[in-house]
Amino acid sequence: MSELLKYVTQKVMSRNECIRALRFDAVGVGTICAITELNEGRVAHGDSGSALVVRGYIQIGIVSYGIFTAKHIAVYTDVCYFYDWIEAVVKELNCIT
């Protein structure tokens, strides 16, 4: 585990691109796939729960798992898809006043 915060630049893939690349249909609704285009790194053990961020600060995904192939594809939980559920749970837990 690194003491420094690391990041990798990825490109969000369409669901069909992801299914073709992974060769299985386990990529359901509520997920986002992203690929590391440059050989600069990948999602690794211990990264689960990390954010997929666009424009520097907008979180659109949460790391679910990575596929360890030459393509370095990561599968994320789609925050927008689950937004209403997240909001309801947060309110129920009294995290928002």
TrEMBL record:
<protein>
    <recommendedName>
        <fullName>Peptidase S1 domain-containing protein</fullName>
    </recommendedName>
</protein>
<dbReference type="InterPro" id="IPR009003">
    <property type="entry name" value="Peptidase_S1_PA"/>
</dbReference>
<dbReference type="InterPro" id="IPR001254">
    <property type="entry name" value="Trypsin_dom"/>
</dbReference>
<dbReference type="InterPro" id="IPR043504">
    <property type="entry name" value="Peptidase_S1_PA_chymotrypsin"/>
</dbReference>
<feature type="domain" description="Peptidase S1">
    <location>
        <begin position="2"/>
        <end position="86"/>
    </location>
</feature>
<dbReference type="GO" id="GO:0004252">
    <property type="term" value="F:serine-type endopeptidase activity"/>
</dbReference>
<dbReference type="GO" id="GO:0006508">
    <property type="term" value="P:proteolysis"/>
</dbReference>
<dbReference type="InterPro" id="IPR051487">
    <property type="entry name" value="Ser/Thr_Proteases_Immune/Dev"/>
</dbReference>
<dbReference type="Pfam" id="PF00089">
    <property type="entry name" value="Trypsin"/>
</dbReference>
<keyword id="KW-1015">Disulfide bond</keyword>
<comment type="similarity">
    <text>Belongs to the peptidase S1 family. CLIP subfamily.</text>
</comment>
